[in-house]
């Protein structure tokens, strides 16, 4: 039933190294299957797209908060160092499957490649919940706790138009900086952005280059776009590294403030650039809620065999006008004691 895992699961102890909890020793036993309720300790692996980014740190805070509010939940947090390391994430998830965890909560770096891992986990009786990014296909019994990226990105052209209007510009040339073609979130944001543009024909996309979720590449892309389009009016960068790279790319030639920059996510550095006027507006997700609901959902499915639907964790548009509101600050600086609403 478990595809040859029985012998492997006789190993008595496995050591997990985590970025936040140190070393954990887990006693392994065969998983009970997706249709069975489980009593006793639950072993969860929570895997972001990459370690080190502010977005994923907020996911970790939410996941740890949910784990702390449930009895006998042992959570390990681990991941690769770059969101482009699809093979590394694939291997890491396969390792957790082999080690016999009860549940895996993860964000897929590649929708198609990681779909194979999800199915392998399900075949071995392991509960799976996706956060931020799902797979293609998405199994019906694997919920996704994530932003509705299409709907959220549809509003970006309005933000661009509003900010350009504040500068007295009626539309203009826009550069689009996506981050990783092939990932569900990237492709959904591109889809939504293009949909929204239909209502703003005065906005003309003059360039599109990917940052590959890398700050340095985001900076280089911005410099290249500015060289090719000296009359550029605005930029939309679709994730944190690309936004920060674009911000620096505008600072260096003195274009900050002249060219409108709308970004995605809400790291402390992005908040600082917003306050300083380099970034005009941010579409900020709720990564804390993704992590919290991801773990909470996995526990419910394992403990109660509950049927849980996917959830839209929403976004908050942020500008200088609302950045200091308490609700906005809770999204930007979440904690278990002060979770975002």
Please tell me about this protein's structure.
This protein is α/β, with parallel strands linked by helices and 341 residues long. It folds into two domains: 5-145 and 287-309, Response regulator (Rossmann fold, 3-Layer(aba) Sandwich); 150-285, 3-Layer(aba) Sandwich (Rossmann fold). The protein contains twelve helices and 14 strands. Strands 4-3-5-6-7-13 form a six-stranded parallel sheet, sandwiched between helices. Helix 4 links the parallel strand 5 and strand 6 (127-131). The longest helix is centred in the last third of the chain and has 18 residues, at 287-304. Mean pLDDT is 90; it is low at 1-31.
Question: What can be said about this structure in brief?
Answer:
The protein is an alpha/beta fold and 341 residues long. The chain has twelve helices and 14 strands.
Q: What labels would you give this structure?
A:
341 residues; alpha/beta; Rossmann fold; 2 domains; 6-stranded parallel sheet; 6-stranded mixed sheet; 12 helices; 20% strand; elongated
Task: Summarize the SSE layout with pairings.
Layout: H1 5-8, E1 13-18, E2 22-27, E3 42-47, H2 54-68, E4 73-77, H3 86-99, E5 103-106, H4 111-123, E6 127-131, E7 144-146, H5 149-154, H6 156-166, E8 172-177, H7 184-197, E9 203-208, H8 215-228, E10 234-237, H9 240-251, E11 260-264, H10 268-275, E12 281-285, H11 287-304, E13 311-312, E14 315-318, H12 326-332
CATH H-tier superfamily of the largest domain: Response regulator
Strand order of the largest sheet: 4-3-5-6-7-13
Tell me the fraction of residues in β-strands, as a range.
15-25%
**Span between termini:** 43 Å
Q: How much is the radius of gyration in Å? A: 21 Å
Overall form:
elongated
